[in-house]
User: Fold this.
Amino acid sequence: MSIQVWTYLLVGLSFALYIGIAVWTRAKSTGDFYVAGGGVPTVVNGMATGADWMSAASFISMAGMVSVMGRDGGVYLMGLTGGFVLLALLLAPYLRRFGKFTVPDFIGDRYYSRTARLVAIACAILICFTYVAGQMRGVGVVFSRFLGTSVEVGVLIGMVIVLFYAVLGGMKGITYTQVAQYCVLITAYLVPAIFISIMLTGNPVPMLGIASDLKGTDIGVVQHLDQLSKDLGFGAYTDGKKPMMDVFAIALVLMAGTAGLPHVIVRFYTVKKVSTARSSAFWALFFIAILYTTAPAVSVFARTNFLNIVADKPYAELPTWFKQWEKSGLIAWIDKNQDGIVAYNATGAAMEKMPGASRAAPVFQAEGSGAAGERLLQNKPSAVSNELYVDPDIMVLANPEIANLPPYVIALVAAGGLAAALSTAAGLLLVISTSVAHDLVKRTLKPSLSEKSELLWARISAGVAVIVAGYFGINPPGFVVQVVAFAFGLAASSFFPALVLGVFSKRVNCKGAVSGMIAGMAFTISYIVYFSFGIFGLQGTPDQYFLGISPEGIGSIGMVINFVVAIAVSYMTPKPPVEIEALVEGVRFPRAALGSKDSGPISH
Assistant:
Protein backbone atom coordinates (compact mmCIF):
# COMPACT_ATOMS: atom_id res chain seq x y z
CA MET A 1 0.00 0.00 0.00
CA SER A 2 1.09 3.59 -0.59
CA ILE A 3 2.13 6.00 2.16
CA GLN A 4 -1.14 7.90 1.83
CA VAL A 5 -3.28 4.75 2.15
CA TRP A 6 -1.32 3.62 5.20
CA THR A 7 -1.68 7.11 6.68
CA TYR A 8 -5.44 7.20 6.16
CA LEU A 9 -5.68 3.75 7.74
CA LEU A 10 -3.55 4.38 10.85
CA VAL A 11 -4.78 7.94 11.44
CA GLY A 12 -8.38 6.82 10.92
CA LEU A 13 -8.01 3.95 13.39
CA SER A 14 -6.38 6.20 15.99
CA PHE A 15 -9.11 8.82 15.62
CA ALA A 16 -11.78 6.13 15.99
CA LEU A 17 -10.06 4.98 19.19
CA TYR A 18 -9.99 8.51 20.63
CA ILE A 19 -13.65 9.12 19.85
CA GLY A 20 -14.65 5.72 21.25
CA ILE A 21 -12.87 6.45 24.52
CA ALA A 22 -14.55 9.87 24.71
CA VAL A 23 -17.99 8.30 24.35
CA TRP A 24 -17.17 5.62 26.94
CA THR A 25 -15.84 8.11 29.51
CA ARG A 26 -18.15 11.07 28.88
CA ALA A 27 -18.41 13.51 31.79
CA LYS A 28 -21.64 13.54 33.79
CA SER A 29 -20.68 16.15 36.40
CA THR A 30 -18.42 19.16 36.82
CA GLY A 31 -16.06 16.98 38.89
CA ASP A 32 -15.74 14.59 35.95
CA PHE A 33 -15.34 17.47 33.51
CA TYR A 34 -12.73 19.41 35.48
CA VAL A 35 -10.67 16.76 37.33
CA ALA A 36 -11.98 13.37 36.12
CA GLY A 37 -13.69 12.79 39.46
CA GLY A 38 -10.36 12.99 41.33
CA GLY A 39 -9.79 9.23 41.16
CA VAL A 40 -7.40 8.59 38.26
CA PRO A 41 -4.84 5.80 39.03
CA THR A 42 -1.25 6.94 39.51
CA VAL A 43 0.39 5.29 36.50
CA VAL A 44 -2.53 6.22 34.25
CA ASN A 45 -2.29 9.85 35.39
CA GLY A 46 1.46 9.83 34.83
CA MET A 47 1.01 8.57 31.28
CA ALA A 48 -1.77 11.07 30.58
CA THR A 49 0.37 13.87 32.02
CA GLY A 50 3.21 12.83 29.75
CA ALA A 51 0.94 12.96 26.70
CA ASP A 52 -0.59 16.25 27.86
CA TRP A 53 2.83 17.84 28.20
CA MET A 54 4.64 16.18 25.25
CA SER A 55 3.06 18.36 22.63
CA ALA A 56 3.74 18.84 18.94
CA ALA A 57 6.81 20.77 20.08
CA SER A 58 8.22 17.67 21.78
CA PHE A 59 7.31 15.24 19.03
CA ILE A 60 7.68 17.31 15.87
CA SER A 61 9.81 20.33 16.56
CA MET A 62 12.21 19.70 19.44
CA ALA A 63 14.38 17.08 17.70
CA GLY A 64 14.25 19.29 14.61
CA MET A 65 15.66 22.19 16.60
CA VAL A 66 18.44 20.00 17.99
CA SER A 67 19.06 18.72 14.46
CA VAL A 68 19.39 22.26 13.12
CA MET A 69 21.09 23.93 16.11
CA GLY A 70 23.35 21.11 17.29
CA ARG A 71 24.54 21.51 20.86
CA ASP A 72 22.57 24.73 21.33
CA GLY A 73 19.35 22.80 20.79
CA GLY A 74 20.15 20.64 23.81
CA VAL A 75 18.90 23.46 26.02
CA TYR A 76 15.34 22.40 25.15
CA LEU A 77 16.04 18.85 26.33
CA MET A 78 17.52 20.00 29.63
CA GLY A 79 15.01 22.72 30.40
CA LEU A 80 11.86 20.81 29.59
CA THR A 81 12.74 17.67 31.55
CA GLY A 82 14.19 19.65 34.47
CA GLY A 83 10.89 21.44 34.84
CA PHE A 84 9.15 18.29 35.97
CA VAL A 85 11.63 17.91 38.82
CA LEU A 86 10.73 21.42 39.96
CA LEU A 87 7.04 20.66 39.62
CA ALA A 88 7.27 17.42 41.59
CA LEU A 89 9.36 18.89 44.42
CA LEU A 90 8.02 22.43 44.72
CA LEU A 91 4.39 22.55 43.72
CA ALA A 92 2.44 19.41 42.79
CA PRO A 93 1.88 17.95 46.29
CA TYR A 94 0.98 21.29 47.87
CA LEU A 95 -1.41 22.30 45.11
CA ARG A 96 -3.11 18.91 45.33
CA ARG A 97 -3.43 19.40 49.08
CA PHE A 98 -5.12 22.72 48.47
CA GLY A 99 -7.76 20.74 46.57
CA LYS A 100 -9.03 23.16 43.94
CA PHE A 101 -9.81 22.65 40.26
CA THR A 102 -7.56 25.23 38.59
CA VAL A 103 -4.58 27.55 39.02
CA PRO A 104 -6.81 30.69 39.09
CA ASP A 105 -8.81 28.90 41.82
CA PHE A 106 -5.67 28.57 43.94
CA ILE A 107 -4.50 32.13 43.29
CA GLY A 108 -7.95 33.62 43.91
CA ASP A 109 -8.33 31.87 47.28
CA ARG A 110 -4.70 32.03 48.43
CA TYR A 111 -4.50 35.75 47.71
CA TYR A 112 -8.09 36.35 48.93
CA SER A 113 -8.81 38.61 45.98
CA ARG A 114 -11.25 38.76 43.09
CA THR A 115 -8.70 40.87 41.22
CA ALA A 116 -6.03 38.21 41.67
CA ARG A 117 -8.43 35.60 40.32
CA LEU A 118 -9.26 37.74 37.26
CA VAL A 119 -5.57 38.42 36.52
CA ALA A 120 -4.86 34.69 36.84
CA ILE A 121 -7.74 33.87 34.48
CA ALA A 122 -6.38 36.32 31.91
CA CYS A 123 -2.87 34.84 32.24
CA ALA A 124 -4.16 31.26 31.93
CA ILE A 125 -6.15 32.02 28.80
CA LEU A 126 -3.25 33.91 27.18
CA ILE A 127 -0.74 31.15 27.99
CA CYS A 128 -3.05 28.43 26.72
CA PHE A 129 -3.92 30.19 23.48
CA THR A 130 -0.24 30.87 22.81
CA TYR A 131 0.58 27.22 23.47
CA VAL A 132 -2.34 25.82 21.48
CA ALA A 133 -1.32 27.83 18.40
CA GLY A 134 1.76 25.64 18.13
CA GLN A 135 -0.30 22.45 18.47
CA MET A 136 -2.72 23.41 15.74
CA ARG A 137 0.17 24.34 13.46
CA GLY A 138 1.61 20.87 14.09
CA VAL A 139 -1.71 19.30 13.10
CA GLY A 140 -1.75 21.35 9.91
CA VAL A 141 1.83 20.41 9.01
CA VAL A 142 1.11 16.68 9.38
CA PHE A 143 -2.11 16.77 7.40
CA SER A 144 -0.66 18.96 4.63
CA ARG A 145 2.11 16.47 3.91
CA PHE A 146 0.69 13.03 4.61
CA LEU A 147 -3.00 13.34 3.78
CA GLY A 148 -2.63 15.66 0.82
CA THR A 149 -4.80 18.43 2.30
CA SER A 150 -4.03 22.09 2.76
CA VAL A 151 -2.82 23.30 6.16
CA GLU A 152 -6.19 25.00 6.64
CA VAL A 153 -8.19 21.82 6.00
CA GLY A 154 -5.84 19.85 8.27
CA VAL A 155 -6.42 22.30 11.12
CA LEU A 156 -10.19 22.10 10.61
CA ILE A 157 -10.13 18.29 10.83
CA GLY A 158 -8.08 18.49 14.02
CA MET A 159 -10.54 21.02 15.45
CA VAL A 160 -13.49 18.69 14.90
CA ILE A 161 -11.74 15.73 16.59
CA VAL A 162 -10.59 17.75 19.61
CA LEU A 163 -13.97 19.47 19.92
CA PHE A 164 -15.73 16.12 20.08
CA TYR A 165 -13.78 14.41 22.83
CA ALA A 166 -12.88 17.55 24.83
CA VAL A 167 -16.44 18.87 24.94
CA LEU A 168 -18.06 15.46 25.47
CA GLY A 169 -15.63 13.87 27.90
CA GLY A 170 -14.02 16.80 29.68
CA MET A 171 -11.01 15.87 31.84
CA LYS A 172 -12.31 12.33 32.30
CA GLY A 173 -12.50 11.70 28.57
CA ILE A 174 -9.28 13.57 27.88
CA THR A 175 -7.34 11.61 30.51
CA TYR A 176 -8.06 8.18 29.05
CA THR A 177 -7.78 9.49 25.50
CA GLN A 178 -4.34 10.84 26.37
CA VAL A 179 -3.26 7.42 27.62
CA ALA A 180 -4.08 6.02 24.18
CA GLN A 181 -2.37 8.99 22.53
CA TYR A 182 0.77 8.45 24.58
CA CYS A 183 0.93 4.84 23.41
CA VAL A 184 0.55 5.98 19.80
CA LEU A 185 3.06 8.82 19.96
CA ILE A 186 5.79 6.92 21.83
CA THR A 187 5.47 3.94 19.46
CA ALA A 188 5.62 6.30 16.49
CA TYR A 189 8.74 7.97 17.91
CA LEU A 190 10.63 4.82 18.89
CA VAL A 191 9.95 2.56 15.89
CA PRO A 192 11.70 4.70 13.24
CA ALA A 193 14.47 5.58 15.71
CA ILE A 194 15.15 1.88 16.28
CA PHE A 195 15.02 1.12 12.54
CA ILE A 196 17.45 3.93 11.69
CA SER A 197 19.78 3.13 14.59
CA ILE A 198 20.09 -0.44 13.28
CA MET A 199 20.64 0.81 9.72
CA LEU A 200 23.38 3.29 10.67
CA THR A 201 25.11 1.62 13.60
CA GLY A 202 23.79 -1.92 13.98
CA ASN A 203 22.66 -1.05 17.53
CA PRO A 204 18.88 -1.40 18.12
CA VAL A 205 18.89 1.01 21.09
CA PRO A 206 18.88 4.60 19.74
CA MET A 207 20.23 6.04 23.00
CA LEU A 208 23.29 3.78 22.60
CA GLY A 209 23.38 4.02 18.82
CA ILE A 210 24.18 7.72 18.97
CA ALA A 211 27.40 6.83 20.84
CA SER A 212 28.28 3.98 18.45
CA ASP A 213 30.40 3.86 15.29
CA LEU A 214 28.86 4.04 11.86
CA LYS A 215 28.37 0.57 10.47
CA GLY A 216 31.51 -0.66 8.71
CA THR A 217 33.71 2.18 10.05
CA ASP A 218 35.57 3.15 13.18
CA ILE A 219 34.08 6.66 13.15
CA GLY A 220 31.32 7.57 15.61
CA VAL A 221 28.00 8.88 14.29
CA VAL A 222 28.43 12.24 16.01
CA GLN A 223 32.07 12.57 14.85
CA HIS A 224 30.96 11.83 11.28
CA LEU A 225 28.27 14.50 11.53
CA ASP A 226 30.79 16.96 12.96
CA GLN A 227 33.06 16.42 9.96
CA LEU A 228 30.16 16.55 7.50
CA SER A 229 29.02 19.86 8.96
CA LYS A 230 32.55 21.28 8.81
CA ASP A 231 32.92 20.21 5.19
CA LEU A 232 29.82 22.26 4.36
CA GLY A 233 31.19 25.27 6.25
CA PHE A 234 28.85 25.16 9.26
CA GLY A 235 31.45 24.33 11.92
CA ALA A 236 31.29 21.27 14.16
CA TYR A 237 27.77 20.08 14.97
CA THR A 238 28.74 19.79 18.63
CA ASP A 239 29.96 23.40 18.85
CA GLY A 240 27.68 25.85 20.60
CA LYS A 241 27.03 29.28 19.12
CA LYS A 242 24.46 30.77 21.50
CA PRO A 243 25.70 33.10 24.27
CA MET A 244 25.88 31.20 27.56
CA MET A 245 23.54 33.73 29.17
CA ASP A 246 20.87 32.95 26.57
CA VAL A 247 21.31 29.20 27.03
CA PHE A 248 20.92 29.61 30.80
CA ALA A 249 17.89 31.89 30.40
CA ILE A 250 16.08 29.53 28.01
CA ALA A 251 16.76 26.51 30.24
CA LEU A 252 15.46 28.43 33.27
CA VAL A 253 12.34 29.56 31.41
CA LEU A 254 11.54 26.04 30.27
CA MET A 255 12.01 24.68 33.80
CA ALA A 256 9.99 27.36 35.57
CA GLY A 257 7.46 27.45 32.74
CA THR A 258 6.84 23.71 33.05
CA ALA A 259 6.19 24.13 36.77
CA GLY A 260 3.77 26.97 36.00
CA LEU A 261 1.78 25.57 33.07
CA PRO A 262 -1.88 25.47 34.09
CA HIS A 263 -2.81 22.47 31.89
CA VAL A 264 -0.02 20.39 33.49
CA ILE A 265 -0.73 21.48 37.07
CA VAL A 266 -4.42 20.61 36.79
CA ARG A 267 -3.48 16.99 36.14
CA PHE A 268 -2.35 16.66 39.76
CA TYR A 269 -5.89 17.46 40.90
CA THR A 270 -7.14 14.30 39.18
CA VAL A 271 -5.55 11.90 41.70
CA LYS A 272 -6.87 10.86 45.11
CA LYS A 273 -4.27 12.25 47.51
CA VAL A 274 -1.01 14.17 47.93
CA SER A 275 1.30 11.17 47.96
CA THR A 276 -0.31 10.02 44.70
CA ALA A 277 0.42 13.43 43.17
CA ARG A 278 4.13 12.90 43.91
CA SER A 279 4.01 9.43 42.37
CA SER A 280 2.20 10.79 39.32
CA ALA A 281 4.99 13.32 38.80
CA PHE A 282 7.55 10.50 38.93
CA TRP A 283 5.67 8.38 36.40
CA ALA A 284 5.13 11.39 34.13
CA LEU A 285 8.86 12.10 34.17
CA PHE A 286 9.59 8.44 33.42
CA PHE A 287 7.26 8.35 30.42
CA ILE A 288 8.57 11.69 29.17
CA ALA A 289 12.19 10.55 29.56
CA ILE A 290 11.62 7.70 27.11
CA LEU A 291 11.03 10.21 24.32
CA TYR A 292 13.51 12.82 25.50
CA THR A 293 16.43 10.40 25.79
CA THR A 294 15.65 9.21 22.26
CA ALA A 295 15.41 12.73 20.79
CA PRO A 296 19.18 13.39 20.50
CA ALA A 297 19.61 10.18 18.51
CA VAL A 298 16.70 11.10 16.23
CA SER A 299 18.24 14.54 15.70
CA VAL A 300 21.68 13.21 14.79
CA PHE A 301 20.37 10.41 12.58
CA ALA A 302 18.01 12.76 10.70
CA ARG A 303 20.68 15.42 10.17
CA THR A 304 23.27 12.87 9.01
CA ASN A 305 20.94 11.22 6.51
CA PHE A 306 19.59 14.55 5.27
CA LEU A 307 23.03 16.02 4.56
CA ASN A 308 24.24 12.82 2.94
CA ILE A 309 21.26 12.70 0.59
CA VAL A 310 20.61 16.37 -0.21
CA ALA A 311 23.63 18.62 0.25
CA ASP A 312 25.52 19.46 -2.95
CA LYS A 313 23.51 16.95 -5.00
CA PRO A 314 21.80 17.57 -8.38
CA TYR A 315 18.17 18.52 -7.84
CA ALA A 316 17.07 16.10 -10.56
CA GLU A 317 18.47 13.18 -8.53
CA LEU A 318 16.78 14.05 -5.23
CA PRO A 319 14.24 11.51 -3.93
CA THR A 320 10.48 11.88 -4.15
CA TRP A 321 10.06 12.84 -0.50
CA PHE A 322 12.02 16.07 -1.03
CA LYS A 323 9.70 17.21 -3.79
CA GLN A 324 6.64 16.22 -1.79
CA TRP A 325 7.79 18.32 1.18
CA GLU A 326 8.39 21.26 -1.18
CA LYS A 327 4.64 21.39 -1.72
CA SER A 328 4.12 22.11 1.98
CA GLY A 329 6.47 25.11 1.81
CA LEU A 330 8.62 23.71 4.62
CA ILE A 331 11.54 22.86 2.33
CA ALA A 332 12.55 25.26 -0.40
CA TRP A 333 15.36 25.30 -2.97
CA ILE A 334 16.23 28.29 -5.12
CA ASP A 335 18.81 27.63 -7.84
CA LYS A 336 20.56 30.98 -7.49
CA ASN A 337 23.62 30.13 -9.60
CA GLN A 338 21.63 28.13 -12.16
CA ASP A 339 23.80 25.01 -11.92
CA GLY A 340 21.07 22.56 -10.89
CA ILE A 341 23.01 21.64 -7.71
CA VAL A 342 21.43 21.99 -4.26
CA ALA A 343 23.96 24.15 -2.43
CA TYR A 344 23.63 24.01 1.35
CA ASN A 345 26.49 25.69 3.17
CA ALA A 346 27.39 28.35 5.67
CA THR A 347 27.93 31.08 3.08
CA GLY A 348 24.23 31.81 3.50
CA ALA A 349 21.77 31.40 6.34
CA ALA A 350 19.35 28.51 6.54
CA MET A 351 15.71 29.48 6.63
CA GLU A 352 15.46 29.16 10.39
CA LYS A 353 18.20 31.82 10.70
CA MET A 354 17.06 34.04 7.87
CA PRO A 355 16.59 37.66 9.04
CA GLY A 356 13.07 38.95 8.81
CA ALA A 357 11.64 35.61 7.66
CA SER A 358 7.95 35.11 8.29
CA ARG A 359 7.31 32.03 10.39
CA ALA A 360 3.71 31.52 9.33
CA ALA A 361 2.89 28.19 7.66
CA PRO A 362 3.46 27.65 4.84
CA VAL A 363 6.48 29.93 4.79
CA PHE A 364 6.62 30.11 1.01
CA GLN A 365 3.95 29.81 -1.65
CA ALA A 366 4.72 28.22 -5.00
CA GLU A 367 4.64 30.21 -8.25
CA GLY A 368 5.28 27.31 -10.64
CA SER A 369 8.31 25.33 -11.76
CA GLY A 370 11.81 26.51 -12.62
CA ALA A 371 14.23 25.28 -15.25
CA ALA A 372 15.51 22.47 -13.03
CA GLY A 373 11.99 21.43 -12.00
CA GLU A 374 12.15 23.14 -8.61
CA ARG A 375 9.15 24.98 -7.20
CA LEU A 376 9.53 28.71 -7.73
CA LEU A 377 8.64 30.76 -4.69
CA GLN A 378 7.27 34.09 -3.63
CA ASN A 379 9.18 36.10 -1.03
CA LYS A 380 12.53 34.90 -2.37
CA PRO A 381 15.22 35.74 0.18
CA SER A 382 17.76 37.66 -1.86
CA ALA A 383 19.86 38.73 1.14
CA VAL A 384 21.43 35.30 1.60
CA SER A 385 23.38 33.08 -0.76
CA ASN A 386 22.29 29.71 0.53
CA GLU A 387 20.00 27.83 -1.85
CA LEU A 388 18.36 25.38 0.51
CA TYR A 389 15.86 26.33 3.22
CA VAL A 390 14.71 23.77 5.77
CA ASP A 391 12.08 24.30 8.45
CA PRO A 392 13.02 22.50 11.71
CA ASP A 393 9.44 21.28 12.05
CA ILE A 394 9.83 18.72 9.26
CA MET A 395 12.93 16.85 10.45
CA VAL A 396 11.11 14.27 12.62
CA LEU A 397 8.18 13.88 10.25
CA ALA A 398 10.44 13.45 7.22
CA ASN A 399 12.97 11.29 9.09
CA PRO A 400 11.47 7.89 8.06
CA GLU A 401 11.22 9.02 4.44
CA ILE A 402 14.80 10.32 4.47
CA ALA A 403 15.92 6.92 5.75
CA ASN A 404 13.73 5.12 3.16
CA LEU A 405 11.76 3.21 5.78
CA PRO A 406 8.60 1.23 4.89
CA PRO A 407 5.37 3.17 4.20
CA TYR A 408 3.66 1.89 7.35
CA VAL A 409 6.44 3.38 9.51
CA ILE A 410 6.05 6.74 7.75
CA ALA A 411 2.29 6.61 8.34
CA LEU A 412 2.85 5.67 11.99
CA VAL A 413 4.93 8.82 12.48
CA ALA A 414 2.09 10.91 11.02
CA ALA A 415 -0.34 9.32 13.49
CA GLY A 416 2.13 9.97 16.33
CA GLY A 417 2.55 13.61 15.39
CA LEU A 418 -1.21 14.09 15.38
CA ALA A 419 -1.55 12.28 18.73
CA ALA A 420 1.06 14.57 20.30
CA ALA A 421 -0.55 17.75 18.98
CA LEU A 422 -4.13 16.76 19.76
CA SER A 423 -3.42 15.46 23.28
CA THR A 424 -1.90 18.75 24.39
CA ALA A 425 -4.47 20.82 22.50
CA ALA A 426 -7.24 19.04 24.38
CA GLY A 427 -5.63 19.74 27.77
CA LEU A 428 -5.14 23.40 26.90
CA LEU A 429 -8.68 23.82 25.67
CA LEU A 430 -9.97 22.29 28.88
CA VAL A 431 -8.02 24.84 30.94
CA ILE A 432 -9.53 27.64 28.86
CA SER A 433 -13.05 26.29 29.32
CA THR A 434 -12.64 25.80 33.08
CA SER A 435 -11.10 29.26 33.44
CA VAL A 436 -14.20 30.74 31.86
CA ALA A 437 -16.93 28.49 33.26
CA HIS A 438 -15.60 27.77 36.75
CA ASP A 439 -13.25 30.64 37.63
CA LEU A 440 -14.94 33.52 35.82
CA VAL A 441 -18.64 32.65 35.72
CA LYS A 442 -19.16 30.35 38.74
CA ARG A 443 -16.60 31.76 41.19
CA THR A 444 -16.69 35.44 40.16
CA LEU A 445 -19.74 36.58 38.19
CA LYS A 446 -22.55 34.18 39.15
CA PRO A 447 -21.89 32.12 42.31
CA SER A 448 -25.48 30.78 42.31
CA LEU A 449 -24.92 28.98 38.98
CA SER A 450 -26.15 25.37 39.13
CA GLU A 451 -23.83 22.46 38.36
CA LYS A 452 -25.78 21.64 35.21
CA SER A 453 -25.49 25.22 33.95
CA GLU A 454 -21.81 25.35 34.86
CA LEU A 455 -21.19 22.19 32.83
CA LEU A 456 -23.02 23.77 29.89
CA TRP A 457 -20.88 26.91 30.20
CA ALA A 458 -17.76 24.75 30.25
CA ARG A 459 -18.75 22.95 27.05
CA ILE A 460 -19.70 26.16 25.26
CA SER A 461 -16.40 27.74 26.32
CA ALA A 462 -14.48 24.72 25.01
CA GLY A 463 -16.30 25.02 21.67
CA VAL A 464 -15.46 28.72 21.33
CA ALA A 465 -11.86 28.03 22.37
CA VAL A 466 -11.52 25.39 19.64
CA ILE A 467 -12.60 27.92 17.02
CA VAL A 468 -10.11 30.54 18.24
CA ALA A 469 -7.38 27.88 18.44
CA GLY A 470 -8.13 26.88 14.86
CA TYR A 471 -7.59 30.47 13.73
CA PHE A 472 -4.17 30.54 15.39
CA GLY A 473 -3.37 27.18 13.83
CA ILE A 474 -4.01 28.63 10.38
CA ASN A 475 -2.23 31.91 11.21
CA PRO A 476 0.45 30.91 13.75
CA PRO A 477 2.87 33.46 15.23
CA GLY A 478 5.89 31.19 14.73
CA PHE A 479 7.17 27.67 14.23
CA VAL A 480 6.05 25.09 16.77
CA VAL A 481 8.85 25.03 19.33
CA GLN A 482 9.28 28.83 19.18
CA VAL A 483 5.60 29.43 19.94
CA VAL A 484 5.72 26.89 22.76
CA ALA A 485 8.84 28.57 24.19
CA PHE A 486 6.88 31.84 24.25
CA ALA A 487 4.10 30.11 26.21
CA PHE A 488 6.63 28.76 28.72
CA GLY A 489 8.04 32.26 29.11
CA LEU A 490 4.59 33.64 29.86
CA ALA A 491 3.95 30.88 32.41
CA ALA A 492 7.34 31.42 34.08
CA SER A 493 6.86 35.18 34.33
CA SER A 494 3.29 35.06 35.64
CA PHE A 495 2.24 31.86 37.45
CA PHE A 496 5.48 30.33 38.70
CA PRO A 497 6.36 33.11 41.20
CA ALA A 498 2.75 33.46 42.35
CA LEU A 499 2.50 29.71 42.99
CA VAL A 500 5.87 29.38 44.73
CA LEU A 501 5.29 32.41 46.94
CA GLY A 502 1.72 31.28 47.59
CA VAL A 503 2.97 27.97 49.00
CA PHE A 504 6.20 29.01 50.71
CA SER A 505 5.55 32.56 51.95
CA LYS A 506 2.88 33.61 54.42
CA ARG A 507 3.87 37.26 54.04
CA VAL A 508 3.08 37.78 50.34
CA ASN A 509 -0.34 39.38 50.01
CA CYS A 510 -2.86 40.01 47.25
CA LYS A 511 -1.44 43.37 46.21
CA GLY A 512 2.04 41.92 45.88
CA ALA A 513 0.90 38.87 43.89
CA VAL A 514 -1.23 40.91 41.48
CA SER A 515 1.49 43.54 40.97
CA GLY A 516 4.09 40.84 40.39
CA MET A 517 2.02 38.92 37.84
CA ILE A 518 1.14 42.07 35.90
CA ALA A 519 4.73 43.38 35.92
CA GLY A 520 6.30 40.05 34.91
CA MET A 521 3.77 39.33 32.19
CA ALA A 522 3.80 42.88 30.79
CA PHE A 523 7.60 42.92 30.50
CA THR A 524 7.74 39.48 28.86
CA ILE A 525 4.96 40.18 26.36
CA SER A 526 6.47 43.54 25.40
CA TYR A 527 9.91 42.03 24.82
CA ILE A 528 8.56 39.11 22.75
CA VAL A 529 6.36 41.34 20.62
CA TYR A 530 9.08 43.93 20.04
CA PHE A 531 11.79 41.50 19.01
CA SER A 532 9.73 38.79 17.31
CA PHE A 533 6.85 40.57 15.63
CA GLY A 534 7.51 44.30 15.79
CA ILE A 535 5.26 47.00 17.22
CA PHE A 536 4.28 50.43 15.90
CA GLY A 537 6.44 49.83 12.84
CA LEU A 538 9.53 49.10 14.98
CA GLN A 539 11.29 45.78 15.50
CA GLY A 540 14.36 45.05 17.58
CA THR A 541 17.40 43.17 16.29
CA PRO A 542 19.44 40.45 18.03
CA ASP A 543 22.29 42.83 18.79
CA GLN A 544 19.84 44.79 20.99
CA TYR A 545 18.88 41.81 23.18
CA PHE A 546 18.99 42.55 26.90
CA LEU A 547 22.09 40.73 28.23
CA GLY A 548 22.09 38.73 25.00
CA ILE A 549 18.83 36.96 25.95
CA SER A 550 16.54 36.00 23.06
CA PRO A 551 12.72 36.30 23.21
CA GLU A 552 12.52 32.56 23.93
CA GLY A 553 14.45 33.07 27.18
CA ILE A 554 13.26 36.48 28.30
CA GLY A 555 10.62 34.97 30.56
CA SER A 556 13.46 34.32 33.02
CA ILE A 557 13.89 38.07 33.49
CA GLY A 558 10.12 38.50 33.67
CA MET A 559 10.08 35.86 36.41
CA VAL A 560 12.72 37.74 38.42
CA ILE A 561 10.75 40.97 38.00
CA ASN A 562 7.62 39.18 39.24
CA PHE A 563 9.39 37.85 42.35
CA VAL A 564 10.97 41.23 43.18
CA VAL A 565 7.79 43.26 42.64
CA ALA A 566 5.59 40.78 44.54
CA ILE A 567 7.87 40.67 47.58
CA ALA A 568 8.56 44.42 47.60
CA VAL A 569 4.90 45.42 47.32
CA SER A 570 3.87 42.85 49.93
CA TYR A 571 6.30 44.21 52.49
CA MET A 572 5.14 47.77 51.80
CA THR A 573 1.48 46.87 52.38
CA PRO A 574 -0.44 45.17 55.22
CA LYS A 575 0.11 41.49 56.03
CA PRO A 576 -2.42 38.92 54.78
CA PRO A 577 -5.30 38.04 57.14
CA VAL A 578 -4.61 35.51 59.89
CA GLU A 579 -6.83 32.90 58.25
CA ILE A 580 -4.73 33.10 55.06
CA GLU A 581 -1.54 32.56 57.07
CA ALA A 582 -3.21 29.50 58.60
CA LEU A 583 -4.22 28.38 55.14
CA VAL A 584 -0.61 28.49 53.93
CA GLU A 585 0.50 26.66 57.07
CA GLY A 586 -2.10 23.99 56.36
CA VAL A 587 -0.92 23.54 52.78
CA ARG A 588 2.72 23.21 53.86
CA PHE A 589 2.25 21.15 57.04
CA PRO A 590 -1.18 19.51 56.79
CA ARG A 591 -0.77 17.02 59.63
CA ALA A 592 0.66 19.54 62.09
CA ALA A 593 -1.85 22.23 61.20
CA LEU A 594 -4.91 20.11 60.70
CA GLY A 595 -4.21 16.88 62.54
CA SER A 596 -5.26 14.87 59.48
CA LYS A 597 -3.75 12.73 56.80
CA ASP A 598 -3.01 13.88 53.28
CA SER A 599 -6.00 12.20 51.72
CA GLY A 600 -8.01 15.28 50.87
CA PRO A 601 -8.14 19.03 50.43
CA ILE A 602 -8.03 21.44 53.29
CA SER A 603 -11.22 23.34 54.05
CA HIS A 604 -11.45 27.07 54.31
